[in-house]
C-alpha cells in the first residue's frame, strides 16, 4: 500500500500516519523530515537545500521530488509506505508522477476545531516536543523531556497565522485532493474524537477499500 495523509493544520494527520505505520509495519515519513535528513547528511543536494532554506525560500517541487524518489527507492519502501502531508499543492502534485498512491486519507475537522487545537498547542523551544494546555501545561513551563527547553506557542499557532494557513490549505491543497478524488482513492476520515477512535476509523476504511 502507498498511503498519503492530507488534512488541515491541527487535524492530527501526523499522529495518525505514525499509528497506521506501526499497525501496518510500513515506513512513514514527512517531506520536511526528508529534507532535514538530506541536509544533515551533508550531501551536495543537502547543501543546495540548506542554502534555499536559509534564504527563506520554498524548496522547489523538483528538488523535493528528487529527495522523495531517492527515499522511496530504498528497500524498506518497496512493499509500501506512508507519506504525511505531501503533496500540498499543484506543483508538488505534478512532480509526484513517478508514484501512484493507493489510498489518500484526508483527516477532516471543523474550522473551529483547528483554532481550538492549535491555540492549545505548546512546543518545546529546544527539541520540538509538542503538548497541550489541555494536559495542564502552561507557556514557559519546562519541557517534560528535561532538555532545558521551555514550552512556547509557535508564531504560526496564533489565530492570525492559523487563518492564513487555512486559506493556503483551501487554495493550494484542496485542488490536489479533488484530483485524487477523481481517481477514486480519497477516503475522508472524521478527525474529531480520541486518537484511538480516529485510528479505528482509518483501519475500518482500509478494510472496506
Automatic annotation (TrEMBL):
Residues 120-157 are annotated as: LID. ATP binds at residues 10-15, 121, 193. AMP binds at residues 36, 57-59, 85-88, 92, 154, 165. Monomer. InterPro entries: Adenyl_kin_sub, Adenylat/UMP-CMP_kin, Adenylat_kinase_CS, P-loop_NTPase. It catalyses: AMP + ATP = 2 ADP. Catalyzes the reversible transfer of the terminal phosphate group between ATP and AMP. Plays an important role in cellular energy homeostasis and in adenine nucleotide metabolism. The lineage of its organism: Bacteria, Candidatus Uhriibacteriota. GO terms for biological process: AMP salvage. Belongs to the adenylate kinase family. Pathway: Purine metabolism; AMP biosynthesis via salvage pathway; AMP from ADP: step 1/1. Residues 30-59 are annotated as: NMP. Consists of three domains, a large central CORE domain and two small peripheral domains, NMPbind and LID, which undergo movements during catalysis. The LID domain closes over the site of phosphoryl transfer upon ATP binding. Assembling and dissambling the active center during each catalytic cycle provides an effective means to prevent ATP hydrolysis. It comes from the Bacteria. Keywords: ATP-binding, Cytoplasm, Kinase, Nucleotide biosynthesis, Nucleotide-binding, Transferase. One of its GO terms (cellular component) is cytoplasm. It comes from Candidatus Uhrbacteria bacterium GW2011_GWE2_46_68. It is found in: Cytoplasm. The gene is adk. Its EC number is 2.7.4.3. It holds the Pfam family ADK. One of its GO terms (molecular function) is ATP binding. This is Adenylate kinase.
